Amino acid sequence: MRRAAEERRREKAEELAARQRVREKIERDKAERAKKYGGSVGSQPSPPAPEPGPVPSSPSQEPPTKREYDQCRIQCLLLSSSWPRNVPADG
């Protein structure tokens, strides 16, 4: 009986340690993503910014113009995992 109780305690401690490792990994991933994409992480202060990367060769580029679309195309996959053939756009 003592062995079973000790084994359960050990398994519980291992599980808690594994959960803690997963939480720490998630926090590291969040911080890396925030650093990579310029977002902010709520629970951790942002690490000091690394050296700025190379400056773009043409900083005077205008942002791309916004496109307006008047048509769209929908693709669907049949339940049999095959693509429908020759389906007209209106039907």
UniProtKB/TrEMBL annotation:
Region (Disordered): 1-71
Membrane-spanning segments: none
GO molecular function terms noted in the UniProt entry: K48-linked polyubiquitin modification-dependent protein binding
Basic and acidic residues bias (residue ranges): 1-35
Residue spans of biased composition, Pro residues class: 45-57
GO CC list: cytoplasm; nucleus
Record-level GO BP terms: negative regulation of proteasomal ubiquitin-dependent protein catabolic process; negative regulation of protein K48-linked deubiquitination; negative regulation of protein ubiquitination
Listed name of the protein: UBX domain protein 1
